[in-house]
Amino acid sequence: MAAVEFTLQGRTDVHGRCYLDLEAVGALTTTCQRCMQALEHPLRLARELELADSVAVIEQADDDVDRVLAGPAMAVNELVEDEVILELPMVGRHEQCEVMAGGDGEDAAGRGEGATAPLKDMLQEWAHRAGRDTSEPQTARRAAGAVRKPIKEQ
Q1: Which residues, including other chains, have CB under 8 Å from residue 144's CB and lie 6 or more apart?
Q2: Beta strands in the chain, from DSSP E residues, in sequence order
């Protein structure tokens, strides 16, 4: 669930370049990658986006200016969504997870496997469906049937 409010305002500078000033505030909820519980991200962003006439202008730019492709009809919701996503951490996680804080190493089901138990369960279920032996521990690559092939020299 997300609640984000934003303002988007256009302007030009003294050189005639067009900009969009985006401000957004709110809160986003994602999943913690350690404990798989809800993780709230407070959001406060301010962006200055220069409008570009073509993709070539964006690709050839050699500076730190954020640019977006301008058009007669721009999808504002997609622009805001993209900027909000860029504001999120690549790997969201609590600073101190409740599952990890217990100190006994047990997950919510009491299996003693910590936050990796859901992943292990999923891999075992997949291996079972594929008819693979799950009696011995396997790496995720082996469980998924990955095969390492030598690279031929040229």
Answers
A1: 123, 126
A2: 2-12, 18-31, 38-52, 66-69
